[in-house]
Amino acid sequence: MVQTFLSTVQDTDPENADLTMKLGSVGLAETLSVFALALRLRWADPHAPQRYHIKTAGLQVFVLGCMLILAATAIQMLLGTLVFVVHPPPDAQAGSLIGLLFPAETGGWGMVRQWAFVLWIPAFVLASRGSRRRVMLAMICAAVPTIVSVGWLTAAFFRPATSAFIWDELLRTVIACVVIAGMLSMSATTARPVARNRRRWLIAPTILLAVYNSVLLTLWLALPPPALASVFSVITDDAGFWYFSALIVALGLAACRIRGKRIGTVNLVGLTWLATAATLRGLCMLPLWIEYSRQGAIGSPLMLTLALSAVAITACIAACTGVAATVRIRRIPIPPR
After folding, report:
1. Which residues fall within 8 angstroms of residue 37, CB to CB, at 6 or more apart?
2. What is d(CA 204, CA 267) in angstroms, rounded to the nearest whole number?
3. d(CA 280, CA 311)
4. Does 14 score more than 70 pLDDT?
5. Poorest-confidence range of 31-45, 46-60, 120-134, 200-214?
6. To 5 degrees, how large is the angle CA 160–CA 162–CA 166?
7. Cα–Cα distance measured from residue 75 to residue 100, given in angstroms and rounded to the nearest whole number
């Protein structure tokens, strides 16, 4: 379609080529139509070639995996807020419930960003249900915290105190935009976006949070207070939850392999992208831990060691799964043109 237009646009009237290019250019409706057609052809349709199907289905797993982590993070935040309200720490200042839920020191954008993040929960639930209409609603829910994050980034450039977290927030916003683009692709295809395992996707955040909080409780009971503070500073961070999630998924796939089950190539592709995103999140937080180490903060060497170890582990997971997925995909015959 595009090639035919470009090959004939200057042959209609050679003397008025500039006028033809100006008035006869492709409009917005035609551009969106071609874009939607490309999405339908390249996304995981039932009749797509197997090599394309695996890549795009792996991207779908990555999109749902990112939404799962974001939704689980929002649930963890709500649980932490509930515990803080029901049983506040001894050093917390007494105040109203509104003051506890919406602290003034976080600023206007901080409060809006914190509570808009909760919309990732209904976004994940709607996207995991599978119908195109629900995916569109999920995309609308996910767009709200993404727009708020963009606003927070814009305001953060004028606040030097928050500049240490700008790169991490920028990467999180980029990941959210990729997720929204993935959902747009899922809604453009004629196939059912989530063909199977919808119930597993819905119970996955509960399992992930149960394992995560069990590990935190074990560390809290086993480690001394100085080491516990350093470990919790890395693990309870937003990027630390991405480390943990990628590691849990990798261990789950390894356990299936040990039990004799074959790991699907689609899952390997999705885990590769997920571990890559977790590695990038960790790299964005490394300057903060390095700065703490330079300032001589208490427990900063252990924080930096844990952060570097987490980045190395997720990078190894991404490399190993990426190599395994690439080898499998190359064994698939190339579709004839």
Report:
1. 1
2. 15
3. 8
4. no
5. 31-45
6. 105
7. 18
